[in-house]
Amino acid sequence: MKYRDQAAAGLASIEEAILGLLAERPEGLINNEIARTLKLESDFAGRQKNYLTYSVLGGLLKRGLVKREKQDGKQPFKLAR
What we know:
Layout: H1 2-24, H2 31-37, H3 51-62, E1 66-68, E2 77-79
Helix pairs in contact: 1-3, 2-3
């Protein structure tokens, strides 16, 4: 149970950091910008880059805390207000 609690605390911390960052950037950010800004870029050599932040953003989307809007050919993540 200790490891599960550690993982839950880590996830909550990453979510909080992403939400705080998006609050400072009302124009929104794409996943790669979020990963780079928070120093969470993946070192994985395959095609699935920055999946950690993308996965966390998916959970925030599902809970209605962030949204995506098409903008200049991109779909940045923004806070859902």
